[in-house]
Design a protein that fits this description.
The complex is a heterodimer of chains A (about 280) and B (about 550). By secondary structure, chain A is mainly alpha-helical. Among the domains of chain A are: about 100 residues, Cytochrome c-like domain (Cytochrome Bc1 Complex, Chain D, domain 2), CATH 1.10.760; about 90 residues, Cytochrome Bc1 Complex, Chain D, domain 2. Helix content of chain A is about 50%, strand content about 5%. Chain A has 10 helices and 4 strands, in the order αβααααβααββααα. In chain A, a hairpin with a 5-residue loop joins strand 3 and strand 4. Chain A is elongated, with a radius of gyration of 27 Å. In chain A, about 45% of the residues are buried. With about 550 residues, chain B is mainly alpha-helical. Helices cover about 60% and strands about 5% of the residues of chain B. The chains are: A mainly alpha (about 280), B mainly alpha (about 550). Chains A and B meet through helix 1, helix 6, helix 7, strand 3 and strand 4 of A and helix 3, helix 5, helix 10, helix 11 and helix 15 of B.
Chain lengths: ~280, ~550
C-alpha cells in the first residue's frame, strides 16, 4: 500500500510541474501581451510629434543638399592619391581595374567610402560593408575632391525625417525595395554570389544616397522615379525597420519561417520530448 | 459520498463495467509512446486557441482603409482579413499571444506527428493488425499539413499571399484539370475575392472536423487493439505489460498535457512568430524576397527550388516543371507512405499478428530504407532555405543550389550505407542496448584478478516492478477467435498462466481492495466475464467469429 502512495505521489510531480509551468507561461504571455500594448502605445506616442499617413508634420524640405567646403579639396586630393588612385587613377579617371569616378557626384563617393565598402577588400566579390577607413570630414573631403573634377551626379542628401511619412514609406518600400532587400530589410542572397545587403546599419544619408546613385547591382532611382519626398518617406520606414515594433517576444532575426521552424522543432518539440523521456518509462 | 447519480447512469447504460475495465486498462510505459500524445495535446491547444482567434478574425477580402494603432500602416488600403489580424495582434487583450500560441502549436503539432510516425515506422508498429491506424495516421499528417498551410495563409499578409500565389500556380500546373481546378477553387483568376473566406471555412470547419473524427478513430482502434510494446521480460505477443490507466497512466498523461500546454504557452509568450505587421498587406504586384513556407511545407518548397526549369512535353503539350516537384512528388510520397504496410509485406511475406515491436537495429532493411528516405526529405527541407543559407554563410546562391541538387541524391545513399552498417553491427552484438550490470573486480589470494557480474540491487527491481508492472491484459478478441478457428487452445489456460506468471497481479488485486473499491463503480469483480452491452469492449461474440471466418476464407492470411 505504501508503494501506492509513493507511486501516486511520484506521478503527481509532472502534473504539478505542468500546472506550475502553465501558470508561469500565462504570466509570461500576459507580459508579452502588455509589451505589445506598451510598444504600440509608444508608437502612438510618436504620433503626437510626427503625423503619419497622408500629411507630413514639417513644412521643411524633405531632403536638403549638403554643401561641401571647397577648402577641403586639397586634403581630399591627398587622401585620394594615397588610398584610391592605385585603382581609380590619379584623377579618378578610371583604369582597367576600376571605373571612372568623374561626374558620378558627391553622393556616390560618400556612400561607398562612408559604408566602408571603399577601399575594396576583395575585388573579386561584391563590395562588403566594413568599418569605414576615414572619418566624416575626411570622407567629405574625398567627395569634395572627386566632385570638383567634373560636374554632374547627385549631391549628398540630408534627410529631414520630420517631413517624412512612415506609412507612405511602407508602401514605397514594399513596392520598390522588398523584392531584393526583403520586406523586413534584413537582406538576402541573390544569384551568382550577389546579395542585397541588410539595411539595419545604414544611416539616413546612406539610404538616400543608395536610392539616388544605385550602387553595385541596385537600380538607380532618379527624381522622375521617386521624388525627394518619397525618398525621405522610404528612409523613414527603413530607419523604423532598424528598430521596429517587435511585439510578441524575442524577434528571430526577421528571416521568417526558417528560424521559426528551428525554434518550433528544437526548442518546442525538443523540450517536450525531453519531458516525455523524463515522465515515460525507459528500456530495462 | 452520494453515488446515486452514478448508479442511475449505470443502471441505464451499463457504464460501470466499461469504466471498471477502462480504469484497469494497461498501457505499456515507454517514453517513445508519448510522442503521439504531444501531437494530440497540441491539437487540443490548437482547438482552444483557434476558437479564440475566430472571435476576432474577419475572413473577408473586402478592402478597408486602416486607421488602427499600428501607425506604420496608417492610411493603407488592405483586406478586412489583414486589418482584423492587426487588430487582433495589437488591440485585443492577449490576442497576440493567442495567435502566437496557435502558430507555435501548429509547428509543434506537425513536428510531433512526424516523430510519432518515425517511431511507428522504425519499430514496425504498423504491421498487422494495425494497418488501418497507419493509414488513418498518414491521412491525419496530410490533413495537418494542408490545415497548417491554410491557417498560415489566412492573415492575407505579403508573405502568405505570395504562398497562395505559388499554390495557385501549382494547381495550374496539373495537366488537363489544372486550370479548371484553380478557377473553381479561387472563383476565377488569382487572387479573386473568395479565396480567404474559402480557406477559412476549410480551415476552421471542414479539416478540423475530419481530423477530430479521424483522431477519435485512431484512438479507438488503438484502445481496441491495445498498444504495442517493446520486447522484454514477461512480455509476449498475447499480453500487455505496463501501468494501469488509473491512477498511474491517467496522471502521467494528464501531467504531460499540462507540460505541453506550458511549453507552447512559453513559446507563444517568449518567441515572436510571423510578425505580419512587418510584412504589410498582400498586394498582388508586390513581392518580398526570401519567402519560405512554414517548416512542414519546407520539403515541397525545397523540391520546387531544386527542380530544374525543364520544359517537358507529353502528348504534344508542355507539362510545367512545377508539376513534378509540387504535385507528383507529394502524390508519390503520400501514396507510398499510406501503402507502406502492404509494400513491406510484399517483401517480407509476413502475415502474422505483431503486438511486440521490432527494435530498429533488429530490422536492418527497414531501418536502412527509413534512414535513406528521411535523409532525402531532410535535404529537400534544408533546400527550402537556400537563400538564407547562402546569405548566412556568405556564399553564392548558385553554389548552394547545386550543392543541394547533388546532396539530394548522394546524402541519402551515404546515410543508408552508414545505417545499414550500424544496424548490422548492433544486431550482431548480444545484449546490445541493454543496460550493463556493474562488474566487481576480485583479487584472489594468489594475486589473480577476476571480474564477476554484480548481483544488481533486487530491492530496486522490486520497486520498479511495483510502479511499472501492471496486470497483463488478455489478447484481443479477434486473435482468440482466430485461434479457435485454427483449433488451437485458447483463453482460459493462457489467461491463467498470465495471472500466475506475473508478480504484478498482486498489485492489481490490491487496487480492488482500496477504500475506493467500495463504491458501485468499483464493485464489479474483475474476473467476471463480459456479456455484451452498449459499452462492452468485446461486442457480440458470435458475430465476431462469423466475421473472422469470412475473412479467413478471403485468403487474407
Amino acid at each position: 500500500m505504501s508503494f501506492h502512495k509513493k507511486t501516486v505521489g511520484r506521478l503527481l510531480v509532472p502534473v504539478a510541474l505542468g500546472v506550475a509551468a502553465s501558470v508561469a507561461g500565462m504570466a509570461l504571455f500576459s507580459q508579452g501581451a502588455s509589451a505589445a500594448t506598451l510598444s504600440s502605445s509608444s508608437v502612438a506616442k510618436g504620433v503626437s510629434s510626427v503625423t503619419y499617413g497622408g500629411t507630413r508634420g514639417s513644412s521643411k524640405a524633405p531632403i536638403t543638399t549638403l554643401k561641401l567646403n571647397p577648402s577641403t579639396i586639397k586634403l581630399g586630393h591627398t587622401l585620394f592619391v594615397e588610398n584610391c588612385s592605385s585603382c581609380h587613377g590619379d584623377a579618378a579617371q578610371g583604369t582597367s581595374r576600376a571605373p571612372n569616378l568623374q561626374g558620378l557626384g558627391a553622393a556616390t563617393i560618400d556612400f561607398w567610402v562612408s559604408t566602408g565598402r571603399m577601399p575594396l577588400a576583395d575585388p573579386t566579390a561584391q563590395a562588403a560593408i566594413k568599418p569605414p577607413r576615414f572619418n566624416r570630414s575626411q570622407t567629405l573631403a574625398i567627395a569634395a575632391y572627386v566632385s570638383s573634377l567634373a560636374s554632374g551626379g547627385p549631391p549628398i542628401p540630408q534627410v529631414n525625417l520630420g517631413a517624412a511619412s512612415l506609412s507612405a514609406g511602407e508602401g514605397l518600400f514594399s513596392t520598390n525595395c522588398a523584392a531584393c532587400h526583403t520586406i523586413t530589410g534584413v537582406g538576402d542572397a541573390l544569384a551568382d554570389g550577389v546579395y542585397a545587403p541588410s539595411l539595419y546599419t545604414a544611416t539616413p544619408t546612406q539610404i538616400a544616397e543608395a536610392v539616388r546613385t544605385g550602387p553595385g547591382n541596385m537600380p538607380r532611382f532618379g527624381t522622375s522615379n521617386l521624388s525627394n519626398q518619397q525618398v525621405a518617406d522610404i528612409v523613414k520606414y527603413v530607419k523604423y525597420l532598424q528598430n521596429p515594433n517587435d511585439a510578441g517576444g524575442i524577434g528571430l532575426g526577421h528571416v521568417g519561417p526558417v528560424a521559426e521552424g528551428f525554434v518550433g522543432i528544437l526548442i518546442g518539440l525538443g523540450a517536450l520530448m525531453i519531458a516525455g523521456y523524463w515522465i515515460g518509462g525507459r528500456a530495462h | 459520498m452520494n453515488l446515486e447519480p452514478i448508479e442511475w447512469v449505470d443502471d441505464r447504460l451499463g457504464t460501470a463495467k466499461f469504466t471498471r475495465k477502462s480504469l484497469n486498462k494497461i498501457f505499456p510505459d515507454h517514453w517513445s509512446f508519448m510522442l503521439g500524445e504531444i501531437a494530440m495535446y497540441s491539437f487540443f491547444i490548437l482547438l482552444g486557441t483557434g476558437v479564440f482567434l475566430t472571435l476576432f478574425f474577419n475572413p473577408s477580402m473586402a478592402t478597408t482603409v486602416y486607421h488602427g494603432s499600428y501607425t506604420p500602416l496608417d492610411g493603407h488600403t488592405m483586406s478586412q482579413a489583414y486589418a482584423s489580424t492587426l487588430n487582433l495582434s495589437f488591440n485585443v487583450r492577449a490576442g497576440l499571444v493567442m495567435r502566437q500560441m496557435h502558430h507555435w502549436a501548429a509547428n509543434v503539432f506537425i513536428a510531433a506527428i512526424v516523430v510519432h510516425l518515425l517511431r511507428v515506422f522504425f519499430t514496425g508498429a504498423f504491421r498487422k493488425p494495425r494497418e488501418i491506424n497507419w493509414v488513418i495516421g498518414s491521412i491525419l499528417l496530410i490533413l495537418a499539413i494542408v490545415e497548417g498551410f491554410l491557417g498560415y495563409s489566412l492573415p492575407d499578409d505579403l508573405v502568405s499571399g505570395t504562398g497562395i500565389r505559388i499554390a495557385y500556380s501549382i494547381i495550374l500546373s496539373v495537366p488537363i484539370i489544372g486550370s479548371y481546378a484553380a478557377s473553381f477553387l479561387f472563383g476565377g483568376q488569382f487572387p479573386g475575392h473568395v479565396i480567404i473566406p474559402r480557406f477559412y471555412s476549410i480551415h476552421i470547419l471542414l479539416i478540423p472536423a475530419l481530423m477530430a473524427g479521424l483522431l477519435g478513430a485512431h484512438l479507438a482502434i488503438m484502445w481496441h487493439q491495445k498498444h504495442t510494446q517493446f520486447k522484454g521480460k514477461g512480455r509476449t505477443e498475447k499480453n500487455v505489460v505496463g501501468v494501469a490507466m488509473w491512477p498511474a497512466y491517467a496522471l502521467q498523461a494528464g501531467g504531460f498535457f499540462f507540460l505541453t500546454a506550458a511549453v507552447i504557452a512559453a513559446l507563444g509568450g517568449l518567441f515572436q512568430i510571423n510578425p505580419i505587421w512587418l510584412y504589410g498587406p498582400y498586394i498582388p504586384y508586390k513581392v518580398s524576397y526570401a519567402v519560405q513556407p512554414d517548416w512542414y511545407m519546407g520539403w515541397l518548397d525545397g523540391a520546387l527550388r531544386l527542380f530544374p526549369s525543364w520544359e517537358i512535353t507529353g502528348f504534344g503539350h508542355m507539362i510545367p516543371a512545377v508539376f513534378f516537384p509540387a504535385v507528383l512528388l507529394p502524390g508519390v510520397t503520400f501514396g507510398l507512405l499510406i501503402l507502406w504496410p502492404w509494400i513491406e509485406r510484399k517483401f517480407t511475406k509476413d502475415y502474422e499478428y505483431h503486438n511486440l515491436l521490432d527494435n530498429p537495429r533488429d530490422n536492418t532493411w527497414r531501418t536502412t530504407i527509413g534512414v535513406a528516405v528521411i535523409t532525402f526529405y531532410m535535404v529537400l527541407f534544408f533546400a527550402s532555405s537556400t537563400d538564407v543559407l547562402a546569405n548566412f554563410f556568405n556564399v553564392s546562391l548558385n553554389l548552394v543550389l547545386w550543392s543541394f541538387r547533388v546532396a539530394v541524391f548522394v546524402v541519402p545513399v551515404i546515410t543508408a550505407v552508414i545505417a545499414h552498417k550500424i544496424t548490422k553491427e548492433a544486431s550482431a552484438v548480444p545484449g546490445a542496448g541493454r543496460p550493463r550490470k556493474a562488474m566487481v573486480i576480485m583479487r584472489s589470494d594468489e594475486g589473480e584478478y577476476t571480474t564477476v557480474e554484480s548481483p544488481g540491487r533486487p530491492e530496486l527491481e522490486l520497486k520498479h516492478q511495483a510502479i511499472h508492472g501492471g496486470e497483463p491484459m488478455e489478447l484481443p478478441e479477434e486473435e482468440r477467435a482466430h485461434k479457435r478457428e485454427l483449433g488451437e487452445p485458447v483463453s482460459v489456460d493462457n489467461e491463467a498462466a498470465f495471472a500466475t506468471a506475473s508478480p504484478a497481479v498482486v498489485l492489481a488485486e490490491e487496487i480492488g481492495e482500496r477504500p475506493s473499491g467500495g463504491t458501485g463503480v468499483f464493485r464489479i469483480p474483475r474476473a467476471a466475464g463480459s456479456g455484451g452491452g452498449l459499452f462492452s469492449p468485446r461486442g457480440s461474440r458470435p458475430n465476431r467469429v462469423d466475421n473472422d471466418e469470412a475473412n479467413g476464407k478471403d485468403g487474407d492470411r
